[in-house]
Write a structure and sequence with these properties.
The protein is α+β, with helices and mostly antiparallel strands. The chain is built from six helices and four strands, in the order H-E-E-H-E-E-H-H-H-H. Among the domains are: 88 residues, Ubiquitin-like (UB roll) (Roll); 50 residues, no CATH class. The longest helix is centred in the C-terminal third of the chain and has 14 residues. It is elongated. Keywords: Hydrolase.
C-alpha cells in the first residue's frame, strides 16, 4: 500500500559521450526512495555500459545549474539528492575521468529478446543485432523483429508517460467518421505554419498509422 502511494520521479538521461547518441534520451520512472546507487545501476543496464565507468550530471532542467557529477556512492535517495517528483529531471551521461564509458560485454547465449529488454525508447538499427554501443537510432528506425504486426495495426512510441495521449490518438484514428473527416480537411500553408498546425500534424500521424510498415511510430 505504501509503495503504491509513493511518489515517482521521472528521469530523462541524455548520453553525451557519443555523437550517435547525443540526440537520444533514456527515460526512467523510479520510486522516490530509490538510492542513487540504484539509479546508476539502472542507467547502466538500460544503455549497456559497465557500472562505475560513467558520470551523471544535472542537465538543462528548470532551476538546475549544478554541473558537479552526482555521487553514485552516496547513501541518499534520489529524493534527498534533489530530484523532484512530478517533474522531468534532466540528466547528462558523461565521460568519467576523461574516459568513455566501457561497453557491457554481451553474455554468451544471450537471445535477441533478452538483449532488447534493457532498451528504453528507440531500438537498434536494422542489422545492428542489439549492439550495446548503438542502442538507439537517430532516425528512429526499428530492427527487423519490430516489423509491422500481423494484425496490420501500427502502435505509437511512448514519449515518457504519454500512454494516455497515445490511447486517445488511437481511439480517434479507429473512429472512421473522425478519420475520414480529417483526411478531407485541406491545409493552407499560406495561413499557418505546418509545424504548429495541430490538424495538419494529426493528419500526417494518421497517414503513418495507416501506411507505415513499422510496428510503432
Amino acid at each position: 500500500e505504501s509503495a503504491a502511494e509513493e511518489p515517482r520521479v521521472l528521469c530523462i538521461i541524455q548520453d553525451t559521450t557519443n555523437s550517435k547518441t547525443v540526440n537520444e534520451r533514456v527515460t526512467l520512472n523510479l520510486p522516490a526512495s530509490t538510492p542513487l546507487k540504484r539509479l546508476f545501476e539502472d542507467v547502466a543496464s538500460k544503455v549497456g555500459y559497465v557500472y562505475g565507468t560513467f558520470d551523471l550530471v544535472w542537465g538543462n532542467g528548470d532551476n538546475v545549474t549544478d554541473t558537479t557529477p552526482i555521487d553514485q556512492n552516496s547513501d541518499k535517495t534520489i529524493l534527498d539528492a534533489g530530484f523532484e517528483p512530478g517533474k522531468k529531471n534532466f540528466l547528462h551521461l558523461t565521460d568519467k575521468d576523461g574516459e568513455q564509458p566501457h561497453i557491457m560485454p554481451e553474455e554468451s547465449g544471450t537471445t535477441d529478446d533478452s538483449v532488447q529488454d534493457r532498451f528504453i525508447g528507440p531500438l537498434p538499427r536494422e542489422g545492428s543485432v542489439g549492439c550495446s554501443n548503438d542502442y538507439v537510432s537517430q532516425s528512429y528506425s526499428y530492427s527487423s523483429v519490430l516489423s509491422k504486426s500481423e494484425t496490420g495495426y501500427v502502435g505509437l512510441v511512448n514519449q515518457a508517460m504519454t500512454c494516455y495521449l497515445n490511447s486517445l490518438l488511437q481511439t480517434l484514428f479507429m473512429t472512421p467518421e473522425f478519420r475520414n473527416a480529417l483526411y478531407k480537411w485541406e491545409f493552407e500553408e499560406s495561413e499557418e505554419d505546418p509545424v504548429t498546425s495541430i490538424p495538419y500534424q494529426l493528419q500526417r500521424l494518421f497517414v503513418l498509422l495507416q501506411t507505415s510498415k513499422k510496428r510503432a511510430i
